[in-house]
Amino acid sequence: MTKITFLNGQFIEHENAKIHIEDRSIQFADSVYEVVLFHKNKLADGLQHWQRLENSLAKLGMKMPYSVAEFDDYAKQLFNLNKLETASIYIQVTRGVCPRNQLIPQDIPQTVIMTVSPFKVPSTDLNKTTKAMLEPDIRWHMCDVKSTGLLIGSLYKQKAADNGCDDVIMHRDGNITECCFSNIFIVKNSQLITHPTDNLILAGITRATIIELAKKLNISTVERKFSIAELLNADEVFSTSTTTFVRPIHIINNKIMADGKTGNIAQSLFNSYINYINQ
Ligand code: PDD
Per the confidence metrics, is the pTM higher than 0.90? Predict the structure, then answer.
């Protein structure tokens, strides 16, 4: 089946979806993105994703190219055209095309791209050992913007793979911020701890849902900074994202966390998240 992609209001064959070489996304990473799951015939947390897209754009002085209803409709049409059961939808909005100029051009048409990929819901068996390594968070100070300037994350993912790890956990000024492409939680004495939403992390939609689900399970959560030492002495560690849901981390910098098994809290939050997404 031919893959269909959305480009600037049109549904076209993926192979023919081309953007201009002077798009500002290429010159300046002047673009933001979202990754949304299409599952059980609906966008999972669609509204929250569109709101975050609007926030990211606003922080860079850009507007939403379409209304939330239009975005929703285009995403649904794209999903249906590709005849997939469950898909992740990648949405990118750039400032548009302009001969290279360090000054920001005004009122040029934005470029909007949406692509879909088949998605497999993560398995409930969380016992595959996951390893991570620590690296300094050398990203910019606008990590709350879901920018396509993702090179540090990508270099770190590769570094993790080269070192037999699955992920990098980043730290800034002695505190843990997040993983390359996910948020991070620790559990200490049955309490969940995660970095507050500020300019140093992305306000993950899954992170917010997990905090809500934890409330329902009577698990107390505190949003505060925590140190590298707290991470390494945690009872449980897990990351969260749209595509990985809840992912326990069992080994960090070669140190086996607790007993090296997936903890009860990570497992119950994963189960609750699966129920939530299947509703
Ligand atoms: N990444 N932090 C970073 C740096 C991220 O890139 C992501 C998501 C998250 C989790 O956000 P959410 O729960 O809304 O997916 C946190 C996506 C999945 C990606 O780039 O593929």
Answer: yes
Cα 180 to middle of ligand 1, angstroms: 8
Phi, psi of 125 (to 5 degrees): -85, 100
pLDDT digits (tens, 9 = 90+) for 49-89: 999 999 999 999 999 999 999 999 999 999 999 999 999 99
At residue 237, does pLDDT exceed 90?
yes
Give domain 131-277's CATH number out of 3.30.450.30, 3.30.1330.10, 3.20.10.10, 3.30.300.130. Answer: 3.20.10.10
**Fold entry, domain 4-118:** D-amino Acid Aminotransferase; Chain A, domain 1 (3.30.470)
Given ligand 1 and candidates 170, 202, 205, 273, which is best to mutate, with the most ligand atoms within 8 Å of its CB? Answer: 202
pLDDT digits (tens, 9 = 90+) for 185-231: 999 999 999 999 999 999 999 999 999 999 999 999 999 999 999 99
Specify the ligand 1 atom closest to the Cα of 52: 14
